[in-house]
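Below is how a single chain appears once it has passed through the pipeline. First comes the sequence as given, then the structure the pipeline wrote out for it. We keep one example in the README because the format questions we get most often are answered faster by looking than by reading.
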Amino acid sequence: MGYSQPLASKAVPSPDRVPALYDVVGIGNALVDVIAHADDSFIGLESLVKGSMTLIESERAASLYKALGSAVEMSGGSAANTMCGVASFGGRAAYIGKVSNDDLGQVFGHDLRAVGVAFRPGAPAGDMPTGSCIIVVTPDAQRTMNTHLGVSSLLCPPDIDLDTVAAGAVLYMEGYLFDRPEAKAAFRHASQTAHEHGRMVSLTLSDSFCVDRHRDDFRALVSDEVDILFGNEDELLSLYEVSSFDDAVAAVRADCAMAAITRGAVGSVIITRDEIVVINAEPVDQVLDTTGAGDLFASGFLYGLTKGLDLAECGRLGSIAAAEVISHVGPRPLVELRNLL
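Resulting structure:
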């Protein structure tokens, strides 16, 4: 399946008319992950909402960091993880996100460039530090995220490198951006630019709590601006406020040209107006950390899509990438994903 098929951009029918410099361009909150293991008693003691993403202020971040004790620090951020996955498959990826001129900001940029992702940072903003995400992984491999957005939350339209957006076959944006009005404006600015240049626009719902906060905005985006929707089953149910997965599938099918929805150990489904493709999950010996599973599924799927593969194969690549990342701690692949094919 190539770009000239029915999944063309909502703005321009043939996104392949102008050669793309990048396969995928991602925009998101540029964060450094702080990952630690703890049991469920820690979740209760710190009054955390298990399995969710909660926005926190700097004081709370410092308190949690101290309470956790030992932790592993590595570059993260949902869309950035996806771009690293695309590059690991051998694709051409770029990332737009806002960091500061501090140690974490330098590390973040270095980690992207080291794996072949072009990094287009926005301008720093005063003394605001680079964002971070404290991730608590419980024995069942569930991750509970507490995010201090830092300067990443100040992403605004002037931070968007429009030449980079225009040069990507697919624009990939994370739902977390909608937590601040300026970032929301940047999101729409990038989406408009992508469509004006005949590119496809994709959105990941990010988190069911994020969907709860921005349901109306997301519904409008899916209906009017998004060509490819990513999410998991819980997020899709939340988006359409239904209890049945079949009802959610019917709803998104009416709204969006394509949706790629993960369902944990059950696998995933690719939904278009013409077909529903069921993808089995790849076997994993032991699930150690589900952080980044959805991010890496998206990377495999988008890599396959930009290479003209059929939907079943795109989904299989997504499952391979997700299986690799949940088999170890951390949100990015530890091996070259192209070698797993």
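The mean pLDDT is 91.

See the next section for the split statistics.
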